[in-house]
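Write out the 3D structure for:
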Amino acid sequence: QVQLEESGGGSVQAGDSLRLSCVASGRIFSSALMHWFRQAPGKEREWVAGIRKGAGTTTYADSVKGRFTISRENAANTMYLQMNSLRPEDTAIYYCAIDRNGNSWDPRDMEYWGKGTPVTVFA
């Protein structure tokens, strides 16, 4: 069983930066895909970015490309999301999640979820 815990959320002004962390307990195979999702009030959960645990290859939603950077530190079983040039529309609860099979970005396919960390960006 894998447990995920996010941290690093907060309230910032537009243009500021935040770094989110997701610490995993338990074994995660190198083929797994690790993701960040977010959910704004009244909206569906949205995929933000993903990273292959082993190879470290990354993908991003168009809405955050060039502003956000996903990374992982395997020795610490930790994943990060560096968020720069934040915008009010980035306001959401941010979740980390894992797809053990390593082939999906669909939230319905994630086996493990954290409880989320809130990010609020003021104009």
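Residues 30 and 54 are 4 Å apart (CA to CA).
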